[in-house]
Amino acid sequence: MTDLDALREEIVTANRILADNRVVDSFGHISVRHPDHADRFFLSRARAPEQIVAGDIMEFALTGEILGPDPMPGKPYSERFIHGAIYEARPDVQAVVHNHSPSVIPFSVTKVPMKPIMHMSAPIGSDIPNWDIADKFGDCTNLLVTSMEMGRDLAAALGHRTVTLMRGHGSTVVGTSVRQVVFTSVYMELNADMLLRARDLGEVTYLSDGEIETITKARSGFTLERGWENWCLKAGRPYVPGSNETGPGYSQTDKS
Length: 256
Ligand code: MN
Hints:
- This protein has helices spanning 3-20, 80-89, 105-108, 133-137, 148-158, 178-201, 209-218, 221-234, and strands at residues 29-33, 40-44, 57-61, 66-68, 95-99, 130-131, 163-166, 170-175.
- The protein is α+β, with helices and mostly antiparallel strands.
- It has a single domain, classed as L-fuculose-1-phosphate Aldolase, CATH 3.40.225.10.
- An 8-stranded mixed beta sheet has the order 4-3-2-1-5-8-7-6, with helices on both faces.
- The radius of gyration is 18 Å and the shape is globular.
- It binds manganese (II) ion.
- Residues 79, 98, 100, 169-170 line the site of manganese (II) ion.
């Protein structure tokens, strides 16, 4: 198996994990930047994440043009521009998840801020913008990001951050690896669900900015790997250990 074949299998696994953890349902997607060509990315054909197989993974230019394979396995996602526009704006980003994560949506249609309340969710950050497609494209769109112009507007709202909400639609999460973006996405959905319930009980204490910074800096590949292994096996996918499992990011103090 070539490295790119292994990457396609990893994308399949990521789709299954996201579905298994309610981040995506029949809709939503994850892409990965091409490891050898920064101006390309991999993303499945338009298909429910739980049904995706390696043969569904397509290759795109950042502007959304289809580069392969030939013949095409099927129709591309109409919202692939989310991914390309973010890779264009953010050289640090290697993987992107777009989702309609159900517990997150209420925070996109109200003024209630979505912030981390539990240590595992720290990577979502405390400064989460809420991109409203209507601000630039009017109140008669179907809310989908179906052009580079829309994708670039979304990427501008995201800025340097990890997550942006999308009003009345969902959210987009970025990361420096597949494992990281999946981890952040899973804990974003859990955090939103816990926050909705905490608000019913009374006043909420959020993590402080200092706590978020400390946790995010200390979090190692070991933590991501522990989640990834468990989620792979739960989702019925083979676990392929990552190269960073005991790498330089490993920290004795990171027992989260
Ligand atoms: Mn969408």
